[in-house]
Amino acid sequence: MAKRNNRFLWVALSALILGSLALLAVLSINGGFDGLFPGLELPAVSTEAALPTRTPAETATPVPSVTPTATSTTVPTATPTATLTPSPTSTPTEAPTATATNVSTETPTATVTATALPPTATATVSTTETEATPAPPVDPATVTILPATPVPGFGSQFHNRLWVGLYGTCAGPGLGILGRESVTATIVTLHNQAAAYQALLPDRQIVPFFHMVTTVADAHPGADGDYVHRVSTSSINLWVDVGQANGVFSVLDIQPGHSTIAAEIGFLGPWLGQPGVHLAIDPEFLMADGVSIPGQKIGTMSGAQANEAQALLDQYAQIAGERKALIIHQFDDRMFVGKEDIVDYPNIDLVWDSDGFGGPGAKIGDYVQYAAEPGFEYGGFKMFYNYDVPVMQPADVIQLAPFPAFLVYQ
Description:
Elements: H1 2-30, H2 33-36, E1 161-168, H3 183-200, E2 205-217, E3 228-230, H4 233-245, E4 249-254, H5 261-267, H6 269-272, E5 277-281, E6 301-302, H7 303-320, E7 324-330, E8 336-337, E9 348-354, H8 360-372, E10 378-383, H9 394-397, E11 406-409
Parallel strand pairs: 1-2, 1-11, 2-4, 4-5, 5-7, 6-8, 7-9, 9-10, 10-11
Antiparallel strand pairs: 2-3
């Protein structure tokens, strides 16, 4: 029985082997399964792992990337200035307009050129000035400044009075503190400065005033060849009128250039004939030789010319019914000759203004010198907010001897 089963198993195995060989022979002849079964498609199998397909997003327009930088705060760099040690003191130069070259007495207007000596420099007058604005040393609300009023009966303008004023030009900024602001705002600044003195001198009247350069020396001759320009009459009218309405005197300042004292006083006649309007002359820009250019050489005034100015001003004193103040600026010995020739005009209060910047020692030295020279009647003293080192305080200024009558801030 066992032998029969083994024989059957060998027969079956042999049949299977023969069948497989026959199948291989058929496939070889027909080109594989595709040739044997042409309608049958077998799926292709990839040897790589299938990856999910991403749905493409909308294509965005590329935006240029900005590389951020750290934001830094720029700190203005202060321009160092040399320490001034003038001897004698000298009038500084401030920045003039695009069409103006400034002078030591700072004489630019928007359309005027003036050149300074010393120091000689050309600058540009800008509406954005950097001048220091004085901080009121006392609360102005606690101090009463009486209105400036003419003295009746041709009495002295300086009897028991101290004039305190601001210097510049009513044509605009650039010459000093006056002109930087509107006329009404300037009155507030003026009263603040005057209040500092009134608080120290309760028994003396402080008289506020505008000091306005109205004839400006130029470095070019101009159409008429006189090397000066004049501030418009409308500007002068505005400041004089507003000053009078607010109890403020006006001092009109001339820098004659190649013009004459008589011509420039004549131009100011309509205002000098009014009460509370007075005159100043700056010899630095009086070019008596008729050749020199203002600013390139210090000008000179003589005793005879001072007498001429007094005689002309005396006529306007008669018209106005009051004494007139005549202020003459000086910071250098070359600016005046012949003081011994000066005559005393009863209706004129002559003020010698020590007009220079720097340290207190040099400034006080000039003041004391001029007070001891012939022709001196009243002492004047100018201070510069930006150029004096340091600016003298009111408590120190009133210690000047002789006691000053006229104080002006530029």
